[in-house]
């Protein structure tokens, strides 16, 4: 019988709660948390591992009312450290004027920060916007997005609103916006953590250090809380350049995973995800079981892997151990997504994708979101009835917190 990761971690949290809290506090004292993040987790029963960490989270509209309240409390703490005398915040969103669900995320994020006691305005990076624009969100609510004006080292809106803090909700795939470079006001997260510069390999390198330290402190196998990975650069999928490195990386990760499967008595075949080393939105992702799958890739798959968000070429990839999901919502494969503010879990939801299976990437066309239990205190217990289910939120939150700590460390590695 395999050791199940959720009860294992829950036992640690229950028996050594003060020590777990102190462990995180000490490390966030050394490396202060970023304002917010979201972590995609995969739970196979035996292991629970982060597979993606987004620093410009776009799903605040999917977390519960209670989670939004916790987020407001954490934002209040975080912003008080950044600007102790401040009270005005400029939120800079993506230029997704047609993505109504994203716009609802912006509305809810602004509402959360207003609940933390700050005045919030929305500033657009659209170069041709010369007057305020009202946009309707997925719920029929309106948000007002304003053009920006810079004077010297300070940014503000055309009508004279000058923020104490600039909060990015734009992942900057295309580069750091010149209007925001070198500001006197704090910009959080830092522009340098945009996808034009940030790499998943950098994040998972930092995460490996964090996970190893946590595992040593609490006496568990670090493989149970992280996915193995390998990085390759100098790739051109269209021209088939650099694919040998990717193929060797696939074989390496599959081999190492198979060794762990033998150790834990797991009988299924290991597999990997090949992902763009930068960017989000589930673009530039494929699965493989051997290096031959890479070398025999057809033209359609190579074309899909060649370009990611905003037309950026995909020239660097990570080969990441595939973690099959055992989580199901209404019979469909699901994966937990945890939202953190100031490094602490505040809530989350499940990403579900009808028609996709336990081995597939669920962050793809057809995905939808459903709320998860986000009670902080209850322990995981065996289900006592057909309608009873454990509440694993605090376990998800601890592993998500490890990813948030790794994200904070990306700046200093």
From TrEMBL:
Superkingdom of this protein's organism: Bacteria
Keywords: Ligase
Pfam family, one: GshA
The protein's Enzyme Commission number: 6.3.2.2
GO terms, molecular function: glutamate-cysteine ligase activity
Record field: transmembrane: none
Top-level EC class as recorded in UniProt: ligase
NCBIfam families: gshA_ferroox
Name of the protein this chain belongs to: Glutamate--cysteine ligase
UniProt gene name: gshA
């Amino acid at each position: 019988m395999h050791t199940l990761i959720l009860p294992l971690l829950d036992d640690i949290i229950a028996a050594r709660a003060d020590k777990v809290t102190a462990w995180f506090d000490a490390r966030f004292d050394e490396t202060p948390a970023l304002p917010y993040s979201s972590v995609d987790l995969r739970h196979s029963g035996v292991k629970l591992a982060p597979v993606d960490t987004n620093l410009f989270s776009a799903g605040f509209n999917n977390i519960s009312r209670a989670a939004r309240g916790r987020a407001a409390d954490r934002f209040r703490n975080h912003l008080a450290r950044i600007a102790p005398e401040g009270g005005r915040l400029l939120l800079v969103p993506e230029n997704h004027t047609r993505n109504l669900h994203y716009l609802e995320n912006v509305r809810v994020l602004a509402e959360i920060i207003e609940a933390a006691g700050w005045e919030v305005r929305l500033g657009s990076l659209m170069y041709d916007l010369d007057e305020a624009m009202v946009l309707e969100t997925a719920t029929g609510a309106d948000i007002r997005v304003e053009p920006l004006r810079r004077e010297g080292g300070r940014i503000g809106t055309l009508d004279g609103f000058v923020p104490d803090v600039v909060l990015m909700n734009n992942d900057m795939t295309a580069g750091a916006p010149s209007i925001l470079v070198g500001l006197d006001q704090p910009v959080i997260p830092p522009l340098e953590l945009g996808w034009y510069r940030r790499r998943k390999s950098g994040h998972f390198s930092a995460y490996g250090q964090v996970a190893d330290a946590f595992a040593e402190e609490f006496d568990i196998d670090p493989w149970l809380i992280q996915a193995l990975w390998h990085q390759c650069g100098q790739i051109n999928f269209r021209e088939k350049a650099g694919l040998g490195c990717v193929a060797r990386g696939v074989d390496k990760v599959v081999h190492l995973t198979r060794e762990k499967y033998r150790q834990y008595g797991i009988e299924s075949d290991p597999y990997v995800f090949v992902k763009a080393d930068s960017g989000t939105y589930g673009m530039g992702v494929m699965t493989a079981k051997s290096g031959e799958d890479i070398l025999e890739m057809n033209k359609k798959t190579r074309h899909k892997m060649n370009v990611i968000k905003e037309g950026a070429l995909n020239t660097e990839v990570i080969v990441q151990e595939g973690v099959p999901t055992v989580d199901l919502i209404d019979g469909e494969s699901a994966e937990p997504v945890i939202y953190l503010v100031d490094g602490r879990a505040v809530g989350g939801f499940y990403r579900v994708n009808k028609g996709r299976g336990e081995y597939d990437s669920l962050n793809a066309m057809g995905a939808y979101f459903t709320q998860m239990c986000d009670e902080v205190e209850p322990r995981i217990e065996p289900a006592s009835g057909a309608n009873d289910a454990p509440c694993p939120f605090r376990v998800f939150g601890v592993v998500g917190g490890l990813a948030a700590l790794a994200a904070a460390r990306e700046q200093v590695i």
